[in-house]
Design brief:
Length: about 160
């Protein structure tokens, strides 16, 4: 599996910024558990910090069709563009590809009696969801992402958020 996880944990990471169209070096976001609890809703905290999942067909962005960028709810890193979103029938927002693979960590998740590819934010380690190899062309990928791990920023006047 590809892992972009830097060492040591307080290092600098390079993330792609959609607005500038460039890779930027930024500090990792590391917070104490109590601080995450104070910044996130209980559902966001459970999903992003403790690898939870929301019930299928209940997430805020499952049926969202607006144009914009989906960012990490914890640190604001750009993750997915609306153009990459599609209806997979899975019950979660699904994307063909991220804005950049450099913005994600892909690791092996062997919980719940399955082996899956877990997707997390490279900047803050927020659990986002999983990626599967059953998506549409051209990538063949299905990034199955929890709405609670995302913050959507709508495009204004045709400009990328």
């Amino acid at each position: 599996m590809n892992t972009n996880h830097p060492e040591p944990r307080d290092s600098i990471v390079a993330i792609f910024n959609v607005r500038t169209g460039k890779l930027e070096k930024v500090s990792r976001v590391i917070k104490a558990d109590d601080e995450w609890k104070s910044l996130l809703t209980p559902e966001q905290y459970r999903i992003t910090r403790h690898k939870g999942t929301e019930r299928a067909f209940t997430g805020e962005y499952y049926t969202n069709k607006q144009e914009g960028i989906y960012k990490c709810v914890c640190c604001g890193t750009d993750l997915f563009a609306s153009e990459a979103k599609y209806e997979s029938g899975s019950g979660w927002p699904s994307f063909r590809e991220p804005v950049s693979k450099s913005n994600l960590n892909i690791t092996t998740d062997s919980s719940r009696g399955m082996i899956r590819a877990e997707v997390s934010c490279v900047r803050c380690d927020a659990h986002l969801g999983h990626v599967f190899d059953d998506g549409p062309p051209p990538t063949g990928k299905r990034y199955c992402i929890n709405s609670a791990s995302l913050r959507f920023v709508k495009n204004e006047a045709g400009r990328v958020a």
